[in-house]
Write a structure and sequence with these properties.
Layout (H helix, E strand, L loop, with lengths): L4 H9 L10 H15 L8 H17 L17 H8 L10 H8 L8
Helix pairs in contact: 2-3
Length: 114
């Protein structure tokens, strides 16, 4: 839910969570695996968490560490099938949004007094 952004930003600033950028194609790869194993087509938003859960599971498998991995799923991807089609056709492109592009985008935001 987008209204949670201030809370998420706050707990990030408090060091309670780690922010990780996940390439879009990795997210959809994880989503397809999730759909095939769990029978649920996830909405694109939680696929980032699914991808990271898979990363953590593979890391634990590699190191032999016993761990518990918990993730959440919010919503189904039935309204996002065009995005799945783009991924499955191989047309999805990962954008490299570097610091220069980020700064250029931020520079277009007007400053509001207050």
């Amino acid at each position: 839910y987008h209204g949670m952004a201030p809370l998420i930003s706050h707990i990030y600033e408090e060091g309670m969570l780690e922010a990780v950028a996940v390439p879009q194609t990795e997210c959809f790869q994880a989503a397809v695996l999730f759909a095939r194993t769990e029978g649920i087509v996830p909405a694109p938003e939680p696929t980032h968490a699914i991808a990271l859960a898979i990363r953590e599971a593979l890391k634990a498998k590699e190191t032999g560490e016993e761990t518990i991995i918990l993730t959440a799923l919010c919503g189904h991807g039935h309204f996002d099938l065009a995005a799945y089609d783009t991924y499955l056709r191989g047309s999805m492109v990962d954008e490299n949004f570097d610091e220069a592009r980020l700064q250029a985008a931020l520079d277009t935001i007007p400053v509001v007094a207050g």
